[in-house]
Design brief:
Elements: E1 8-11, H1 15-28, E2 34-37, H2 40-52, E3 60-63, H3 72-79, H4 84-87, E4 91-96, H5 101-109, E5 113-118, H6 123-133
Parallel strand pairs: 1-2, 1-3, 3-4, 4-5
Helix pairs in contact: 1-6, 2-3
Length: 134
């Protein structure tokens, strides 16, 4: 059975954050297809399955930095192993509560991350990402 394609992937071990961000995204565009998972390893299984089935890459991926099993940095390293022609259709953003300046610097320097947002970011902040991705 084939998985359905999806536009956005939320990766966060905090289910409450996933629910909150789902609601924000639904306010922006109720027609977007979302998937969520609780760690980077599970996310890579979802993405690898989509790739293997010839489904398009999600437009946006929001990933938490601090998670068990496979954190945001581990996920980015794994994501980077997927075919470049496929993964380049996705934009990765960190959603975090971390105020650590090193995390911000590392995100800016990382070639796969397009930016970093505080988990409490506004609907307008996320809306601007959608406008930029179309």
């Amino acid at each position: 059975m084939r998985d359905e394609n999806f536009d956005i992937l939320l990766i966060d071990d905090d289910r409450t954050s996933n629910i909150l961000h789902r609601r924000i995204i639904r306010k922006i565009d109720p027609n977007l297809k979302l998937r969520d998972c609780t760690n980077g390893e599970e996310a890579m299984q979802i993405l690898q399955s989509a790739f293997d089935q010839g489904l398009p890459a999600p437009q946006l991926i929001f990933v938490d930095l601090n998670m068990p099993v496979c954190d945001g940095w581990c996920f980015a390293d794994s994501f980077g192993t997927l075919a470049e022609s496929w993964r380049l259709h996705s934009r990765l953003y960190i959603l975090t509560t971390s105020l650590n300046p090193e995390d911000q610097e590392r995100t800016i320097a990382h070639p796969l991350f397009a930016g970093i947002f505080d988990k409490g970011c506004s609907t307008e902040s996320i809306r601007s990402l959608f406008e930029d991705s179309h």
